[in-house]
Amino acid sequence: MKNYASVLKNLVFWLPLVTLVFSCNHQQQQLTSEQISNVKTSVTNLTANIAADISTKGPVAWLNYFENSPDFFMASEGQIVFHNYASAQSFIKDTLVKSISKISLQWGKMRINVLNTQLASIGSDFHEDITSLNANQTVPVDGYFTSTAVLTNAGWKLRNLHWSVKKH
Question: What average pLDDT does range 71-94 have in this prediction?
Answer without folding.
Answer: 96
